[in-house]
């Protein structure tokens, strides 16, 4: 039990470090454009990091928890993974490199699990109790097909989104920038497009809503049992789509009046919209990154139960990962603690990375800030819906590059960008190797 408590504490410390390491993701553009002072910006971002507790479910947490087979690992594996993730995060923060906290955690977890499998079984195959042959690499969930044609999961999918997440962010921010640029012209075409987009958004979000009958299915308790309306409105799945609609409709509303504003009025309006876009991105950051730590804690509890058969768990540690029958339990203190830790970390800053994100990649104005943060937020909501743990750092960096490309290719400082890409590529393998070494060292003493 002592080792389990240590892992939970270290996981929350990692979540705190994640907060100040990734604070730049949400506040860099509002600081660079002087919409908020640095202190106001971290307060703003931290508030919405914590508010994500009421918005998002546990899909990403489930994906992270199942990175390795919890039936075949022990607590030393998770401890080594978390320590490796903390070390890499602190190093990249010190160097001012906006690397992925998400990928260092996944890499650490997977690397320690592989080291454990090799230490126990070696490189040759082994037969389990059911007569099935396994190999050391089978301990990690590399790829798992999605149910009913849904999105597949596994470490390979997460690795694929090292490329896909920034590309999606860049594409979305580029398209939003083009949309805004055309909306500034005094012609009817952009306004017709904007109205059509508003109608399409309302229709699409309406089709994604979960009705009350579905919410209470299988005995699930809604957040407001006394009110059907509030139960539907505050269902996490529905809140997320309401936010998507609100973001798109707000930008659309601005596009409809953009051409009638003078330069000063447009800049003032864009700075106000930056508050909305940075808040939306901070929500996505909190919901995406905090869930990863929830997944690690849940996995640690499940491993403890598996390695101590017959042990009685107190209610505060009564955790069960989703299974084929859909059973899932997570005490409310776990998400509450994780969201609190990342919010506290965001309050602590991370100014070296703010400088990289806010000025070194490309010069950011209020216009670019709105486009980049809006694109980043929508990308994070989309990937969270698919239960894919992506890097908020990669996402916002890609979004900033996307808005830079609307000016000219040379507006992006590609030398800085290439250095960042190398850090992204190396994060998972270095974290995995470091976690493997730490696992072997810990195994000598534990």
Secondary structure layout:
Blueprint (H helix, E strand, L loop, with lengths): L1 H31 L5 H14 L7 H7 L9 H21 L5 H21 L4 E2 L5 E2 L20 H29 L4 H21 L3 H4 L12 H6 L2 H23 L4 H45 L25 H15 L3 H10 L5 H20 L6 H16 L6 H32 L1
Antiparallel strand pairs: 1-2
Helix pairs in contact: 1-2, 1-4, 1-11, 1-12, 1-13, 2-11, 2-12, 3-11, 4-5, 4-16, 5-16, 6-14, 6-15, 7-10, 10-11, 10-14, 11-12, 11-14, 14-15
Bulk shape: globular
Task: Determine the mean pLDDT.
Answer: 83
Helix content: over 70%
Q: Number of DSSP strands?
A: 2
Succession of helices and strands:
HHHHHEEHHHHHHHHHHH
What's the story with the biggest beta sheet? 2 strands, antiparallel
Strand order in the sheet with the most strands: 1-2
Unreliable sequence segments = 356-362
What is the gyration radius calculated from CA atoms?
22 Å
Number of distinct helices? 16
Tell me the distance between the termini.
13 Å
Structural class: mainly alpha
Strand content: under 5%
């Amino acid at each position: 039990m002592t080792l389990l408590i240590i892992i939970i504490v270290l996981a929350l410390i990692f979540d705190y470090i994640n907060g100040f390491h990734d604070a730049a993701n949400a506040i860099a553009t509002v600081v660079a454009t002087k919409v908020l002072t640095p202190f106001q910006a971290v307060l703003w971002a931290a508030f919405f990091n914590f508010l994500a507790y009421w918005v998002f479910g546990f899909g990403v947490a489930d994906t992270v928890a199942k990175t390795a087979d919890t039936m075949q690992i022990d607590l030393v594996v998770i401890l080594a993974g978390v320590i490796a993730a903390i070390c890499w995060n602190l190093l990249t923060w010190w160097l001012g490199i906006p690397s992925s906290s998400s990928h260092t955690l996944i890499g650490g977890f997977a690397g320690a699990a592989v080291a454990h499998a090799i230490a126990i079984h070696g490189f040759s195959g082994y037969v389990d109790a059911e007569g099935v042959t396994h190999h050391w690499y089978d301990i990690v969930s590399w790829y798992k097909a999605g149910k009913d044609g849904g999105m597949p999961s596994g470490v390979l999918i997460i690795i694929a989104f090292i490329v896909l997440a920034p590309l999606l962010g860049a594409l979305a921010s580029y398209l939003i920038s083009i949309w805004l640029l055309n909306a500034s012209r005094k012609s009817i075409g952009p306004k017709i497009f904007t109205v059509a987009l508003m109608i399409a958004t309302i229709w699409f979000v309406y089709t994604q809503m979960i009705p009350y009958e579905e919410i209470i299915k299988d005995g699930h308790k809604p957040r407001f049992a006394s009110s059907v309306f509030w139960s539907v409105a505050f269902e996490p799945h529905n809140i997320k789509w309401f936010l998507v609609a609100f973001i798109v409709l707000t930008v659309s509303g601005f596009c409809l009046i953009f051409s009638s504003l003078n330069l000063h009025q447009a800049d003032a309006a864009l700075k106000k919209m930056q508050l909305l876009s940075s808040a939306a991105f901070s929500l996505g950051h909190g919901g995406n990154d905090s869930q990863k730590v929830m997944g690690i804690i849940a996995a640690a509890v499940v491993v403890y139960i598996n390695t101590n058969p017959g042990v009685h768990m107190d209610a505060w540690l009564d955790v069960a990962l989703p299974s084929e029958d859909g059973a899932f339990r997570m005490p409310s203190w776990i998400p509450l603690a994780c969201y609190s830790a990342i919010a506290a970390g965001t309050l602590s800053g991370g100014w070296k990375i703010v400088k990289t994100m806010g000025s070194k990649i490309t010069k950011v104005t209020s216009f670019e800030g709105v486009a980049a943060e809006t694109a980043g937020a929508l990308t994070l909501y989309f990937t969270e819906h698919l239960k894919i743990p992506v890097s908020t750092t990669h996402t916002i960096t890609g979004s900033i590059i996307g808005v830079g490309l609307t000016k000219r290719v040379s507006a992006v400082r590609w030398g800085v960008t290439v250095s960042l890409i190398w850090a992204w590529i190396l994060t998972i393998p270095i974290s995995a190797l470091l976690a493997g070494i730490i696992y072997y060292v810990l195994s000598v003493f534990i």
